[in-house]
């Protein structure tokens, strides 16, 4: 009886060791695959250019475990003061494991200094999320977070087709002043279909149909241009915080989607 107990304990220990070794090997293989995928994405975007990790220039905030994979909140803080006198001219947002990993690029104008940008993205599988800032001299700076979420690109739409069609292209702007910063939140009604979703009634695939281009002008001067794809969430939202150093004016927005539709709106901006 004692001998059988010892044998059982020995086998249990051996099994635990084997399982741990397999788990470690799987983890190592997954890390290698992730590194290879990022290497491919990086080469596509930047070639062999070096990317620096400088949290004082760009800081990314994202949930470790997202509540809803189709609307994962992303916040990016920018500070060009640490970039040796160079302004931040472009921002790239990437979700490594998405079918279309490049969420989009944001081209920033020097006429308004954007300090903070937030939006919502789809995350299709456990993934590194990356924000990369490019300065006027071509230097690249990155911050990264690992987000646990899955199924964001295939999550069903929240609105019925008829209601989504009625609201498509409508925009709202919220604005407020916080200390010496002007905060603007642009909200766009658009289903932003990824092409990976299924109609819950017909069981047919929903074709891709998403906002691909956003232009924001302040007093007829370019402020921000967004170019993106299917990884932006349904009903896109952009929230910007900027230095408040210009006169009151007018913000105009033009958007285009992947079906070549165009929408526009404008608002007075009061400080």
Q: Could you explain the architecture of this structure?
A:
The protein folds into two domains: 1-48; 49-269, Immunoglobulin-like, CATH 2.60.40. It has 271 residues and is an alpha+beta fold. A hairpin with a 6-residue loop joins strand 4 and strand 5. The strands form two sheets. A nine-stranded mixed sheet has the order 1-8-7-4-5-12-11-14-15, with no helix packed on it. The chain is 19% helix and 40% strand. It is built from two helices and 15 strands. The chain starts with a helix and ends with a strand. It has helices at 2-46, 161-167; strands at 51-52, 58-61, 72-78, 88-95, 102-108, 114-121, 127-135, 140-147, 171-178, 181-188, 211-218, 221-228, 237-243, 249-257, 262-269.
Provide a brief overview of the structure:
This protein is α+β, with helices and mostly antiparallel strands. The protein is 19% helix and 40% strand.
Distance between the termini: 83 Å
Largest β-sheet summary? 9 strands, mixed
Residue runs with pLDDT of under 50 for 5 or more positions: none
Helix content: 10-25%
Can you lay out the helices and strands and say which pair or pack?
Elements: H1 2-46, E1 51-52, E2 58-61, E3 72-78, E4 88-95, E5 102-108, E6 114-121, E7 127-135, E8 140-147, H2 161-167, E9 171-178, E10 181-188, E11 211-218, E12 221-228, E13 237-243, E14 249-257, E15 262-269
Parallel strand pairs: 1-8
Antiparallel strand pairs: 2-3, 3-6, 4-5, 4-7, 5-12, 6-13, 7-8, 9-10, 10-13, 11-12, 11-14, 14-15
